[in-house]
Amino acid sequence: YIVADRNNHSVRKVTPEGHVYTLAGSPTWGYRDGPGLQAQFCNPWGVTVDASGNVVVADTRNHCIRLIAPGGVVTTPVGCGRSRPGYQDGTGEEARFFE
C-alpha cells in the first residue's frame, strides 16, 4: 500500500509483510521537489498510482499535485507549490487548488 502520512508530511509504503518505509518527505513540512527523502510536503492527503507507476499525491497545504516517479524523484506538475490557494483551471502553475 502507498499511504499519505499527513502529519509527518511524508508518503510511505507498507509492504505485505507490514514493513513501513518512507518514499518521500520527512517530518519537517515545507515545499521542495527532488530526490524522495530530500523532498518536502505539507500535509499530503490523497494518493494514487498511475499506469506508469508514478505515485500521485495531493499536497494539500502546498495547494498542488505532486508526482513521485518510480525512481523516487518528486516533481510538481500542477499547481504552484507555494502558499497561493485558489480555484482556477489552467496548465501547470496556472492551476490553483484551495486544499
TrEMBL record:
UniProt cross-references to InterPro entries, sorted A to Z: 6-blade_b-propeller_TolB-like, NHL_repeat
Protein name as annotated: Peptidylamidoglycolate lyase
Segments of this protein annotated with the region Disordered: 80-99
Entry-linked Gene3D superfamilies: TolB, C-terminal domain
Ranges: NHL repeats: 35-71
Organism in which the protein naturally occurs: Pyramimonas obovata
Keywords: Repeat
